[in-house]
Design goal:
The protein has 168 residues and is mostly helical. It has four helices and no strands.
Length: 168
């Protein structure tokens, strides 16, 4: 009798053990996603804020009656600071990872009852099916529109259709 399973690893353990592993994996994946978003996205956001602030200081009007109403945030206090937004990025991706890890672990726990697939194959098939259902189908059915491309009057309808596609 070999010391290792020749058919590949199985999803061993109770539901609680599998759920805890899913939560841990989801949390790690969520924090990693937050780190990638921080490293890739934050420099662009900081650049955009710098451009917006520079443009706001360059426009001085002497005649306030003749000047059109401009979009300005100069006098307003930010509702959430940039540091708070950075913390929120990691909090949001971490919580989303926890939720998706719990859903994935639960689906694997119940899915292993109905198939003879080894655990690693079942996990790969489940991950692929989840990606298709949550990411690929909604993306191809309702792709994101760049600003000023889509009809702004249909944004609510398109958002609800996208959400319905994800839920189904």
């Amino acid at each position: 009798m070999p010391l290792t399973d020749t058919h590949g690893p199985t999803l061993q353990g109770t539901f609680v053990q599998l759920l805890l592993r899913g939560l841990l994996a989801g949390l790690l994946a969520g924090l990693l996603a937050g780190a990638v978003a921080y490293v890739v996205g934050e420099p662009h956001i900081d650049s955009a804020i710098a451009i917006e602030e520079a443009a706001g200081t360059d426009t001085h009007h002497t005649d306030t009656d003749a000047a059109p109403a401009a979009h300005s945030h100069g006098d307003e206090e930010a509702l959430v600071t940039r540091d708070g937004q950075r913390v929120g990025l990691f909090l949001a991706t971490g919580l989303a990872g926890l939720a998706l890890g719990a859903i994935f672990a639960s689906a694997l726990h119940y899915g292993r009852r109905f198939t003879a697939l080894p655990g690693s194959v079942l996990a790969l098939v489940g991950a692929g099916a989840g990606w298709v259902a949550i990411e690929a189908v909604p993306f191809f059915k309702y792709p994101a529109n760049p600003p000023a491309v889509g009809d702004p009057e249909t944004i609510t309808q398109r958002t609800w259709l996208w959400l319905a596609t994800v839920i189904l």
